[in-house]
Amino acid sequence: MIDLHVHTTASDGSDTPRQVAEKAAALGLSAIAVTDHDTAAGIAEAVSAGAEWGVEIVPGIEISADYQNRRAHILGLFIDPEAPALRSAVEWAVNERRRRNEQTVKALAAHGICISMEALCQAYPHAVLGRPHIADYLMKQGLVSSIREGFTNYLGEGAPFCFPKKRMPMKDAVEAICSAGGIAILAHPLQYGYAGETLDAFIRAGRDAGAAGLEAYYSEHSEADRIMVQRLADRYGMAVSGGSDYHGSRKPHIELGTGINGTLHVPDIVLENLKGLLRKP
Ligand code: AMP
Ligand code: ZN
Ligand code: FE
Ligand code: FE
What does the alpha-carbon distance between residue 144 and residue 58 come to, in Å, rounded to a whole number? Predict the structure, then answer.
């Protein structure tokens, strides 16, 4: 079994890259992909820990992009983290995050909440920061009882401290991944509110931009969802990928490898098929 969608402390996961590699080994997973939001900073540590523990680490990323004014998460697998096009895409995304984080923190502080960028950076060192960290910080201060509540009451869509963040076009994210030698996958394609023809159009746009696969196996997918995404992949000549979207204690209901209540099983053949795409010219 494998898990090709895993977050670490390099973004908003609670386990370090070393810890996810170790945990994967303990669970008997043969491979995981480290796919942090808008950063490749956790890959090196995970790869070296994976070598020690005998777990294959696929170098990955999950880029927050935009398709027709909705968010679209693009997974990149087998990326070269040093590739210039990917580095500049990541730099743009991280700068935009920084701008939004500063805006959010300023508004929260003006509202009387004890928070600053310095305090956040100290609490989550080396992380590319986002709303989950701010929600976690509010939880540590006792203002909310869970990250979910932090989104509902403060930071989520429609809440008073939700500020927009610019996202790069889906096409740019796919191209950055491809030019870094990676395979681009449309992450959790059923999570964006598309269905029927709009879902097909979204997938065609991703494929036409160069995305080679769809995330069919996913923690929040039912068996029927997985089959539907698999059929869409077949229809458009795409591969499938699969992973849990593990975030450690930041999303405590999702377990590494096995997802929610042990319902996820991503077979090794999924990774073998993706590797087959790498060998094609
Ligand atoms: P950001 O990238 O800073 O905009 O934050 C988005 C992240 O927050 C994603 O990884 C989501 O999984 C997470 N998120 C969004 N809404 C919620 C929610 N209601 N509860 C918990 N996490 C959420
Ligand atoms: Zn996340
Ligand atoms: Fe995502
Ligand atoms: Fe994710």
Answer: 35
